[in-house]
Amino acid sequence: MMNLRIDTTKIRLLGLAAAAVLAATTGQALELNKGDRVVLIGNALAERMQHHGWLESYAQAAMPDKELVFRNHGFGGDKVNNRPRNNGFPSADAYLDISKADVILAFWGYNESFDNSPDAYRADLGKWLDETKGNKYNGKSAPRVVLFSPIAHENLEQANLPDGSANNERLAKYTEATRQVANEKGVEFVDLFSQSQKLYARSKTPLTINGIHLTSGGNKQLARGVHKSLFGKLPRVRARKLSKINAAVLDKNWHWYNRYRATDGNDVWGGRSGLAFYDKQTNREVLQQELKMIDVMTANRDKVIHAAANGKSIKADDSNVPSPVKVVSNVGG
Length: 333
Prior knowledge:
The protein is of the alpha/beta class. 47% of the residues lie in helices and 7% in strands. A five-stranded parallel sheet has the order 2-1-3-4-5, with helices on both faces. The longest helix has 27 residues, at 283-309. It is globular, with a radius of gyration of 21 Å.
C-alpha cells in the first residue's frame, strides 16, 4: 500500500527542494511492492518517457529485488476527458486491465491548459480519479495513483520559438488545480512545474527541443527529480550498470510500443478487422494473435531488465511465444 506520511500542512508541493525536506523527515511518498505493475498515462510528456527510459531505469536500479513491471500508456494529444483513437481501439480502462495496473503515474494538465479553464479541468480530473480508483485493474485492489503537474515551458531564447511566458502563466494555474485535486482525493502529487523550472535555470544546455518536449538529457534529469519525490532520495547507480538497464528498458519499450500502438490499427481492431479472406479467416483473427505474441515478447524482456538491475546479463528467451495464425493465401485459386 502507498505510504501516506506527508504532512500537507507543512509541505504543499513535492518539488526538488520540498522533496529533500520530505526525504529527511518522512521517508518516501510511494512504496512499491514486489512485482508491482506501474503504468504511465498522460500526453506527450508521458509518451516520450518511453523513448528515453530513464524513469524506469532509475527505479529498476534502485529496487532490483522488486521485479517491477512498467508499461507506458502515454499518447500525444490526450486530455484527461478526451483521448482520440482510431475506430475500435481498446478503451483506456481496457488497456489498464491488459497491463494489470497496480500503480498509475498520471501526467495531465498540459494539453488541458490550452482550454484556459482550470475549474473545468479540476472537475474532469476529480471525476477521472474517482472512476479510476473505483476499478481493480489488477483483479484485487484499486490502483494507487500519483498525479503529476505538467512541466514548465523552457525559454530557449530563439526568435522562431515563443519564450513560454504565456504558456507558463496557464501551466502554473493547472499545476495548482492538480495539487488541489490530489489533496481533495487523498492521492500523492508531484510538482514537475517547479522542478523543471529549477532544472532549466541550472542547466548550461537546453533540456527541451522546442521549449516543451524534453531531450533525452532533460528527461534523465527530470527522472532523477521524480525518483527523489517518489522515493525520498536521488537514485545512485554506476553509469555502466545504468546504461545496461536502460538498453534493456528501451528494448522492452519498443516491443510494448508495437503492441500498444500497433501499426495499421484499422486492420487490428478497426473497420477492416472483420474483413474475411480464405475460409472466412479475418484480419482480426490473425492480428489479435500477433498482439498476444508481442505481449509474451514484452514480458520476456522484463526479465532481461530485472537481470540487468541485479548486475546480470541475459538474452530474452522467446521460445515461449505462441505461434502465429497460419494464413492461407486467397491468390492463385
